[in-house]
Amino acid sequence: EYKSYLSMPYSLLGSNEGNQASEGDNYCNMSWEHRLYAFGACCVIGIFLSVFATIELWLTQYTAFALLYSLGTIVAIAGTCFLRGPLSQVKKMFDKDRLISTIVLLVSIVLTIVCGAVLKIAILALLCVILQSLAFIWYTLSYIPGARTAVKSCFSGLTGVNCPC
Fold it and tell me: Which of 21, 82, 124, 150 has the most neighbouring CB atoms within 10 Å?
């Protein structure tokens, strides 16, 4: 019998309470399907904002670029709160396996906004966006079992240098 991914129980993400978020996050009575839709919508909006930000970069609108790109990253991260619940997600972000990547990601978001919107130094804002993108990828990989190890192995294989991270 075929069972849709959208109807799978919430417990796949670690909760033992059916469609309820973890303790402290059960404010939301959204079904698992609606949580997935909300997560997907946040991801799409985040990508749209980041792409639109790139257009602003080419138009030399550095403030808009920095703000939109960073907002896109924030919205994409916020979307994960629909899957786990906000409290549970924040706890997961700061667990020992993700602590460094979370801090680097959050600092890079702040630096992107400061360099682009406050200092208005385009090259620094662009470097911060690159750091933000790499930090977001590394942070995202932390949720996929074995993904970071695979990336480190590929890096080492391609460059002959052991990845220090």
Answer: 21
